[in-house]
Write a structure and sequence with these properties.
CATH class: Mainly Alpha
CATH architecture: Orthogonal Bundle
Order of helices and strands: HHHHHHHHH
CATH superfamily: Tetracycline Repressor, domain 2
Shape: elongated
Radius of gyration: 18 Å
Number of helices: 9
Number of strands: 0
CATH topology: Tetracycline Repressor, domain 2
Structural class: mainly alpha
Distance between the termini: 51 Å
Largest sheet: none
Strand content: under 5%
């Protein structure tokens, strides 16, 4: 991303994370960035190209998050990473919600391809399924669906995440019996 595009893309990323695609309006972006609409069109030509850049930025962010998740040693460290990247997770939630758009579905799937292998080792330890990789991955996939259905800016906090992980652990315990 070019430096001149950075403020536009970061604002668009935030708007999309909180409001989905309907939050991306050129007039609103230009007002928030403090530049004329003509500057937007000079840089991106149209909203479709801009959105492509925002999705590319999200994939870049997904790689950063995945690297941090893979370095997490325990649940507390994982929660810290999740909260540090709350905006990225809210963005991914919007991709999931609006995945009828092929570009959003593709980006959501690519994000999962990046993040799932990175989080799986710590996930297995957090939920108590270190001995069964395939079951841990299935539980992760189901848990991610639940996660994205439940998170909001308000609910995505430390206590909610602790309860979420505890409920997944409890489910795994019940399955093991």
């Amino acid at each position: 991303m070019k430096e001149i595009e950075k403020s536009w893309i970061e604002k668009g990323y935030r708007f999309f994370a909180y409001e989905g695609p309907r939050g991306l309006k050129v007039e609103r972006l230009s007002k928030e960035v403090g530049k004329h609409k003509s500057s937007f069109y000079h840089l991106f030509a149209d909203l479709e190209i801009f959105l492509e850049r925002v999705l590319t930025f999200h994939l870049h962010q997904a790689k950063i998050v995945a690297a941090k998740e893979s370095n997490s040693k325990n649940e507390k460290e994982l929660i810290k990473v999740i909260l540090e990247h709350k905006l990225d997770l809210l963005f991914n939630r919007q991709l999931r919600i609006h995945r009828e758009n092929p570009d959003f579905e593709n980006c959501f799937n690519l994000t999962n391809q990046i993040s799932i292998p990175a989080i799986l080792p710590i996930w297995k330890r957090v939920i108590g399924l270190s001995e069964n990789n395939s079951l841990a991955q299935m539980v992760l996939m189901l848990s991610l669906e639940i996660f994205y259905l439940q998170i909001t800016d308000e609910t995505l906090n430390e206590s909610w995440l602790e309860e979420y992980f505890a409920s997944i652990r409890n489910m795994v315990l019940q399955l093991k019996q």
